[in-house]
Design brief:
The complex is a heterodimer. Chain A is mainly beta. Chain A has one domain (45-220). Chain A is 14% helix and 36% strand. In chain A, strands 2, 3, 5, 6, 8 and 9 form a six-stranded antiparallel beta sheet that branches. A four-stranded mixed beta sheet of chain A has the order 4-11-10-7, with no helix packed on it. Chain B is built from two helices and 16 strands. In chain B, the strands form four sheets. Chain B has an eight-stranded antiparallel β-barrel. A four-stranded antiparallel beta sheet of chain B has the order 5-8-9-13, with helices on one face. In chain B, strands 2-14 form a two-stranded parallel ribbon. Chain B has one domain (2-245): Porin, CATH 2.40.160. Helices cover 9% and strands 56% of the residues of chain B. The longest helix of chain B has 12 residues, at 95-106. Classes of the chains: A mainly beta, B mainly beta. Chains A and B meet through helix 1, strand 1 and strand 11 of A and helix 1, strand 1, strand 3, strand 4 and helix 2 of B. Strand 1 of chain A pairs antiparallel with strand 5 of chain B, so a sheet runs across the interface.
């Protein structure tokens, strides 16, 4: 009889302990860190393809190229030049390639798929402080990220506006397609930045980080 | 105080007494075991959506420990009425799959995902059955209905890319009370005059329609669950002890 009672006590103790352990001990938060796998895609080439909306013969292709993925070699900017007509409107398309692959991978197609958290910015310089507009629809880049305003000029008479919208609600601009509007003859630079803004895209420049940051020489004649 | 604790443990610690049951007898029992979720609730699909939200039915529910108290009164040799209270906490399984889906959906360098558990508290009542087989051995069964008070896990996702912390979004915990069913069979062995041990398997089912609040979701991408209306069902396998009152 004593053996049975002892056995029963052990079983009971074990049960109570196991119930507490099973139900209470397992009720805790778990956490995991998921890093990205090593990237096999590079943004080696940025093409700006422009078409004059009033003159079908006036088409341009400006190419910024950096085939060294490590970035140690200087980029090839020999074709990163836009020769635009004054007082004209151009429809523009941004094409990004990975030319380390054969055939070259069209990275901009991937950006289009991920449009809900990517946003292009276009900063003509020189620009006056009064013309530098920072808003959730402007393509300008804030002074805090490198834009230098000029008090005296001469200024580059170029205005860029985005023409495409993403699938967010409400929709936000993307910048893969754009309008370039030129004014009087002038010269300067156009800085193109692609911002990657995962779950923080709101139309402004600040959230996120930059996927690319390139410059083109601009001549308006 | 110690005596009270011992008494409480004794009262609470019994299992399916069915084998002990006789006309006019009653029992209380305590059971512990494992709960195995089934269906979509237990699935852990890898969800990637870069162009919109995905309300995937995968519940990511892992197997859980379950504890229960039950008791019944047998008004005949074979049939009684009783009640069951059970508690289970289901951790999230394959959290790396959930986290990887968010990482790829936002195409970022790193995602840190933290999740709490599904919690289920069931209060059920119904019929208990007892079928003696051979000396000291019985087959037991029960069919119960009642309510479950269930809650979904809180899931927190922190996004980091390009050396920048892009913030944290949350799927909030949601609580719902719903109709629940439980039924199963077991075997019991009478170890002492008033004690029996019990091994049983039970199917459980409920379908709470959770409405889930999400915070800080600004861009349409990745898994987003605003409503979870999937059956919470599965199999409980438990072992327990029962104490019988009025046994002969």
């Amino acid at each position: 009889m004593k053996i049975y009672i002892s056995f029963a006590r052990k079983v009971l103790s074990g049960l109570v302990a196991s119930v507490i352990l099973f139900t209470g001990g397992c009720n805790k938060k778990e956490s995991t860190i998921t890093p990205a796998p090593p990237s096999n895609e590079f943004l080696t080439t940025v093409e700006l393809s422009l078409h004059n909306t009033a003159d079908p013969t006036d088409t341009l292709l400006a190419i910024w190229r950096q085939l060294d993925p490590t970035g140690s070699a200087p980029p090839d900017t020999s074709k990163a030049i836009l020769n635009l007509k004054a007082n004209s409107t151009y429809s523009a398309q941004v094409v990004i390639l990975d030319e380390t692959q054969s055939p070259a991978a069209v990275v901009s197609d991937e950006i289009k798929v991920r449009e809900n958290y990517h946003l292009f910015f276009f900063q003509p310089t020189p620009i006056s402080a009064s013309n530098l507009i920072i808003s959730n629809t402007s393509t300008d880049i804030p002074v805090s990220d490198g834009t230098v305003t000029s008090a005296t000029g001469p200024y580059l008479n170029l205005t860029v506006s985005r023409t495409d919208l993403d699938a967010n609600s409400p929709p936000l601009q993307i910048g893969l397609t754009d309008n370039f509007v030129t004014g009087a003859a002038s010269n300067g630079w156009l800085r193109v930045v692609l911002r990657h803004q995962p779950n923080v895209k709101n139309g402004t420049y600040d959230p996120g980080s930059s996927d690319l940051d390139v410059n083109y020489k601009v001549n308006i004649n | 105080m110690r005596r009270i604790k011992v008494l409480l443990v004794m009262l609470l610690s019994c299992a399916s007494f069915a084998g002990l049951a006789q006309n006019g007898t009653a029992f209380v029992g305590i059971n512990g075991g494992i709960s195995l979720p089934m269906g979509n609730w237990s699935k852990s699909n890898y969800i990637v959506n870069t162009q919109g939200y995905s309300n995937d039915p995968s519940g990511f529910a892992n197997k859980a420990g379950i504890g229960s108290l039950d008791g019944a009164y047998f008004f005949s040799r074979y049939i009684g009425v009783g009640a069951l209270v059970s508690y289970a906490s289901y951790n999230i399984k394959n959290l790396d799959v959930l986290s990887g889906g968010y990482r790829e959906s936002f195409d970022v360098d790193q995602v840190t995902t933290t999740a709490s558990s599904y919690i289920m508290l069931n209060v059920l009542a119904g019929l208990y059955f007892n079928f003696p087989v051979i000396t000291k051995w019985s087959v037991t069964a029960r069919a119960l209905a009642g309510v479950t008070d269930a809650s979904t896990p809180q899931i927190t996702v922190d996004v980091e890319d390009g050396g920048v912390d892009d913030g944290t979004f949350e799927q909030k915990q949601s609580n719902k009370t719903a109709f629940a069913l439980n039924g199963g069979i077991g075997i019991r062995y009478k170890v002492l005059k008033c004690f029996a041990i019990n091994l049983r398997g039970d199917y459980f089912y409920s379908k709470p329609d959770f409405r889930i609040e999400n915070t800080e979701r600004h861009n349409s991408a990745g898994r987003l669950v605003n409503e979870y209306n999937q059956p919470l069902s599965g199999i409980n396998v438990s072992f327990g002890v029962a104490y019988c009152f009025g046994c002969k």
